[in-house]
Amino acid sequence: MSNSRARDRRKAIAAFPKHGNDYTAALYAHAETLGLQVEQGVFSLRWILRNARRFDCFHFHWPSFDYYVPRASLWRQALFFARYAALVALIRMMGVRILWTAHNLYPHEGGRSHVFHRLGRRWIVFLSCAIFVHGSTAERIVVGEFPETRSKIRLISHGHWDGYYPNDVDRATARASLNLANDSYVYLFVGYCREYKNIEMLVDAFARIDDANVVLVVAGKFASASYQQRIQSMMAPLGPRARLVPEFVPSDRLQWYLNASDSVVLPYRDVLTSGAAMLALSFGRPVVAPAKGVLIDVVPDAVGVLYSTDSVDGLRVAMDRIRERSFDSESIRRFARRFDWDDAARALSDVLAS
Questions:
Q1: What is the rounded CA–CA span in Å between residue 138 and residue 125?
Q2: Taking the domain 3-159+340-353, which CATH number applies?
Q3: Predicted TM-score of the model (pTM)
Q4: pLDDT, tens digit, 9 for 90 and up, residues 42-98
């Protein structure tokens, strides 16, 4: 292959996924402005055999989606995993590099205790040529779990969302639409409601706040009916102080919840990367969160409160502290804009050029 053809080939990325996720859509849109060619990959034997050599790399984000089947039998799960392992190995055997962005240390459902998740992580770590992480804390966590990644780690920004979602509704209008009083203090949790996000501890901590003028809003689609029922039963005794909106919040409606809130609470049990924290900061909202993962890097004292005691009381104290402080929304947005998608795209481009 000539040098010019090799340079052209180095611009081609097969993304898993490119579409269907705001993070990957934003990253690859900025990558394409740098001249990189990004296509949605298809994780099948036929597609890989026909197309792999058109690309310099396959970029994976959540590889468990390619092998994990919830509630599958052990044997069926083993077959899906064997297919995944074989196809990833085939990609490398065909001379194509594999990149992985470590959005989490292990998949949230099952985690480290799930044998196929442990094997899946080891396999993608072994076969990857570069592994992207969002910040120095995430780097320490990943290298601590997988020491062999030390030479493969590359830092990449999780870009901000300022200007990405509609944001033209003022606080008073947003509150009126949600029937929230102007003089109340509103804590918000918004996003996909999954058990690792620990919403039950948030509700428990909120119930212990002795202030009739505070409100908790939880808005988002639930991953399971049983989890939704659990949260509903916890919030019901709190009356109008606790609002549950158990439905998907579309992109153009996020601003109504974020602009109506005073702070965003993210009480995660475990976290490596948090798009929700960056979303809150991009709307100028301070964040309450545990001192874990990327949150240590993106939530300094100027833009929120981190709690190190991972308990209901630890969370309640942090929620009290943030309510007693004042924050400047524009300063928080300026801080969020430091995390730029162009920087992330350049980090990706630099790896391809190396």
A1: 15
A2: 3.40.50.2000
A3: 0.92
A4: 999 999 999 999 999 999 999 999 999 888 889 999 999 999 999 999 999 999 999
